[in-house]
Every structure is written in C-alpha cells, then in structure tokens.
Design brief:
mainly alpha, Arc_rbn_hlx_hlx, 45% helix, 84 residues, FitA-like_RHH
C-alpha cells in the first residue's frame, strides 16, 4: 500500500474533514482514504481526448464552415534527387 503526505491543506478544509470523519465514525486518515476510494477506485478513465473535446466543441457550437479558396495553380514537382 502506498502512503502520501498532503502539505499546505487549508485549515478550513482540515476542519471540515475532521467533522466529516467524526460523522462517519472514522479517523481523518480513514475518511480521506474513503473519499479517494469513492472518487477514484473502479472508475473508467474519464479523461477526454483531443478528439472528444473537438467533437464536443463542434456539437455545442454547431461547427464552423471555412471557405475553401479556389486553386489558382497546380502543385509543383519537388526534386529531392540532390539530397540522396
């Protein structure tokens, strides 16, 4: 089992944790453990990918129509023979 230390915890948060732990009949350490387990254990990885975010943005905004300019010239040929 891993051990972590949380530094810089606000006093008000610590006090709320102490009250919550007492309400559940647990130590503060056991309460923190329970909170972390409830929030993180056995949950699918719900991090959104870039594609997920792009789809959500398109869905929420209706998408964007970008103008496609006409081609004015054909693509040229690139000669890489000098680099071989």
């Amino acid at each position: 089992m891993a051990t972590i230390t949380v530094r810089g915890l606000d006093d008000a948060v610590r006090d709320k944790l102490r009250v919550r732990a007492a309400e559940h009949g647990r130590s503060m350490e056991a309460e923190v453990r329970q909170i972390l387990n409830d929030e993180l254990a056995d949950r699918p990885d719900d991090r959104a990918t870039l594609g997920d975010l792009a789809r959500r943005l398109r869905r929420e905004t209706g998408g964007v129509e970008l103008p496609i300019p006409p081609r004015t010239e054909e693509a040229g040929f690139v000669d890489f023979s000098d680099h071989l």
